[in-house]
Amino acid sequence: MPIQAGTKLMYLADNHGRKINYLRLSVTDRCNMRCVYCMPETGIDKCQHVDILSYEQFLLIAKAAVALGIEKIRVTGGEPLVRRGILDFLAELTKIQGLKQLVLTTNGVLLPEMAQGLKDAGVQRLNISLDSLHPQMFRQLTRTDLLPQVLAGINAAEKVGLPYKINVVVMRGRNDNEILEFANLTRDHDCTVRFIEYMPTLKEKDWRSQVISSHEVLERLHQHYSLHPVERGPLSGPAEEFAIAGARGRIGVIAPLSGHFCQDCNRIRITASGRVRTCLFSDYETDLKPLLKLDDVKVVAHELRRLISEKPACHTLNSQVAGHSPFSMAQIGG
């Protein structure tokens, strides 16, 4: 929350003057999919149960972060809905005074039975990862046959009145022929479809050939639709948003490679094992577990403030260069 100092409001900021108001909490590295850009086909070395933070520890971090000025928390994984007790944990997060937004990222598989529970717990919006609307391509990208469950999950979210965004990682030669089909969903559905540039987290040898810039995505869309820009809210992420004339929903593009929106980055990440990463593509992490044993919100807040002050100005990633060490998004927090 903002700290009152006379008549001037002071906010949590890093040494580059960016307001940091967004925390991503990864509550598990487990997932019921094996998406090709997230983890190798053989899977990952999962954290041991004793290494994963308890919900009480996550709540301690969340309270410390909100006390500093964090206004938005996104719960991620892995797939967060596979962790037992997740609904009760989310309900506890909503009780933190000063938290303005609680949102969750999911692959949608478990939404048919959990959408109502998520709304009742106080989740305000979902981001649903969905990279293909066609069974064969969905199977290639996720290594599962769970598309019917995901689509049923989206329907369940709509039925209970839980707002959602669909996140599409666009990959040349794979799902880029579905750009128009995804965009067309916004005509009849009050949702946002966001096209995200492919990021080489795993640093596959052919990763450059799969990258499609957000500029190219918009060019393709402009050839078929009349798009107009849409103003974003104060807690919005890095997406540029547009709407098709007469459509109920919105279209967004996220350009981590071609756009380098680092100057507007407002987030930090906590992994399921309690490591702080202030930049997704930085190899530098700090383990909070030793401090969490003290069970002191002020101590954790002091460390978070220090780490935020050291947040790097920019990552070094672009469409040709990836200087980071390979990692699985399931281990960092997708």
Keywords:
11 helices; alpha/beta; globular; disordered N terminus; 334 residues; TIM Barrel; twelve-stranded mixed β-sheet; two-stranded antiparallel sheet
Q: Helical stretch count?
A: 11
Please provide the count of β strands: 14
Radius of gyration equals 19 Å
Helix content: 25-40%
CA-based shape: globular
Low-pLDDT parts are 1-9
CATH H-level homologous superfamily name: Aldolase class I
Secondary-structure-based class equals alpha/beta
Distance between the termini: 25 Å
- Taken as a percent bin, the fraction of beta residues is 15-25%
The major sheet is characterized as: 12 strands, mixed
Count of domain modules: 1
CATH architecture: Alpha-Beta Barrel
Describe the structure.
This protein is of the alpha/beta class and 334 residues long. It has a single domain, classed as TIM Barrel (Alpha-Beta Barrel), CATH 3.20.20. 30% of the residues lie in helices and 19% in strands. The chain has a twelve-stranded mixed sheet. Helix 2 links the parallel strand 4 (72-76) and strand 5 (101-106). Helix 2 (86-93) runs parallel beside helix 3 (111-121) and helix 3 (111-121) runs parallel beside helix 5 (147-160).
Layout of helices and strands, plus pairs?
Layout: E1 3-5, E2 8-10, E3 22-26, H1 55-68, E4 72-76, H2 86-93, E5 101-106, H3 111-121, E6 125-129, H4 135-142, H5 147-160, E7 164-170, H6 179-188, E8 192-197, H7 207-210, H8 214-222, E9 227-230, E10 240-244, E11 250-254, E12 267-270, E13 275-277, E14 286-287, H9 289-292, H10 297-309, H11 329-332
Quick recap of the structure?
This protein is α/β, with parallel strands linked by helices. The chain has eleven helices and 14 strands.
